[in-house]
Amino acid sequence: MPALNTGCCLCEAVKYELHGKPVKCAVCHCDSCQQFSGSAFMANCWYKQNDFKIVRGRDAITTYDERGTVSGLIMKRSFCKICGSSLFQQMTQLQEAGLVSVTSGTMDDRSDAQPTLEIWCRNRRQWLTLDHQGEKLEAQ
Ligand SMILES: [Zn+2]
Ligand SMILES: [Zn+2]
């Protein structure tokens, strides 16, 4: 039996389940992730699409298609339209790999969300130091 984790947005309109372990947990310091999260960085875990199930509030989810990314690909950023919580993200490379990127701050159990990858380190806030053994990339 796969381990089950659950998560929800701040207002709890949207609830989801995560079955099994994340494939990767990525911290991203890019400007878009800072703007979308409203914070210093995003810490998201990549799950197999089949392991991510929205169990409540599908109609409360809105998706913003971010164009003009460095890669030129559209980044689909999904959030709760009631409380604004960032929930999950999708882009072509992830989709083709059968993965979805879920925000770790909305997970009920965050113990599996240790970073295994840190990207856009050259954009990292000056005051910020993260302690992990994962791979660090200056850009993407
Ligand atoms: Zn909400
Ligand atoms: Zn980013």
UniProtKB/TrEMBL annotation:
Keyword Amino-acid biosynthesis assigned: no
Pfam families: GFA (PF04828)
SUPFAM superfamilies: Mss4-like
Keyword field contains Nucleotide-binding: no
Domain annotation CENP-V/GFA: ranges: 5-121
Keywords tagged on the record: Lyase, Metal-binding, Zinc
Similarity-based family: Belongs to the Gfa family.
Name of this chain's protein: Mss4-like protein
Organism (species): Aspergillus pseudoustus
